[in-house]
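User: I'm writing a tutorial on reading structure tokens. Could you give me a worked example: one chain, its sequence, then its tokens, then a sentence or two explaining what the tokens reveal?
Assistant: Sure. Here is the example chain.
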Amino acid sequence: MNKTRQQFLSRWLRQQRSHGQRWLRLCSVLGALAAVVVVLQAWTLASLLQALIQQNADRHDLLPLFIALFGCFVLRAAVNFLRERAGFMAGLAIRRALRQQVLNRLQQSGPAWIQGKPAGSWSSLLLEQIEDMQDYYARYLPQMTLALLIPLVILLTVLPMNWAAALILFATAPLIPLFMALVGLGAADANRRNFAALARLSGDFLDRLRGLDTLRLFHRGEAEKQHIGQATEHFRLRTMEVLRLAFLSSAVLEFFASLAIAIVAVYFGFSYLGELNFGHYNSGVTLFAGFLVLVLAPEFFQPLRDLGTFYHAKAQAVGAADVLEQFLSQDHPAPHQGINLPAATVLNIEACDLVICSPAGTPLAGPLTFSLPPGRRVAVVGQSGAGKTSLINALLGFLPYQGSLRIGGIELRELAPTQWHQCLSWVGQNPQLPATTLGENLLPAGAETERLPAVIAACGIDEFLPLLPQGLETEVGEHALRLSVGQAQRVAVARALMKPSALLLLDEPGASLDAHHHQRITEALINASYQQTTLMVTHRMSELAAWDEIWVMRDGKIIQQGSWDALHHLPGPLFSLLQQREETKR
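And here are its predicted structure tokens:
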């Protein structure tokens, strides 16, 4: 990563602090208060030591100073706690805002775009990489303010006491940030490589975990185990590189801070011995001034040392921001409010020279020209890769297109996505049950609860519902782990049937079912298809006779259209598919 890119990412990170500006301002106020408390504490301590050593004051007379010193300790601890809390809340607010931006972009991109990326890389982006920005916003940014405020307040306090001590502090202070920058020059690059290795490792591991049965079937277990081992070792080396830089930075900062404090101590030591007679204002170097400066000297360098300690958080954040900023700045489908379909719109779907494209702009299917009148029931058949699923995704609004695809006379791309999706029910090949409980998944917004028992019976859910510990209140778990794939598919079909819609889209809804349950689901879907416009993708030729119209697709085009009676006995694409099916059965 070159310096220009690092500087750009640093500016981008600072721009994001607007999401937690209120908490960062509070951090600055508390930092200023902490600087004042540090000086009061040192002043009180120096006064006590001078009174005890030089003035031989009675201890009872010093009780107010002891109480004030104890109060400074308590107040400083409270201010530091509140400052840490405000910093944490600032980081939390900014991380939430960044995650929301990523989720919004993913929602805008749609599942067709997301599907091309490993799920592990998304989890790494949303969790690890954004999480690793916490210390940058919670500690590094507030510490930059403290690294300026506290030394400045201490310098203004020391300067009237002894200009030589103030000069030593002022001259040695720049050494710490200078060497911090030199040591941390390659830290952002190391962190970026570390995050890239983590994203690859997460994606590889999750993909192989999902395909574990396939890997065992083809005896690839040992080879993949070695591959994951190599990726893990690569990630370990990258992590150790980052830690090495962090430890080196801390060691350098501690060395120069200790050296500067030692110079101040040597100056006062020789002044008290009479070897050095400068720095004071014609009043000599007093015991009070020496104690005050020596107590404040570590406090002067402590914010700079802490800034150096947190400098690796900046490098870590810059490395994480590289991938995040690239993702957020990529060309995604532009969010738009769109227009709503008028309430009385007749849902007539017409396509003219429709070319369906991938998110990258590559043509997937087309040109297609068809008409889907309201209430029409259409089955789409064709070999794998013919473009059937692409057609479904285009109608869902998840894929861009060229040409014309009009819904009630309005281009689909101009419609408000949220309102259009409310008009749809959809069942795909891979069931997704995002709600917590089974009942919540079965009852989408606007569903009529009195229909639920009939739909449960029609979809065969009543067969396994009594076996669940809490019935409809049973939590299905992440990725519906409590249910089998077939059971989850039946729930997904029932959810689609429960939702009131004007268009029902079915992409091989019985692909995960056995013959018995597939028959039950087919009957339920055919009965439901009379209630709205329905488009179903299927490979089961035995179901086609029940549909109003059949579309045969090949190479991304509709090459044959018509009813079952008109097509199945004529030589042509549908007839060829039927023959292939019979040969496969034999």
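What the tokens reveal: The chain has a mean pLDDT of 79. Residues 336 and 585 are 49 Å apart (CA to CA).
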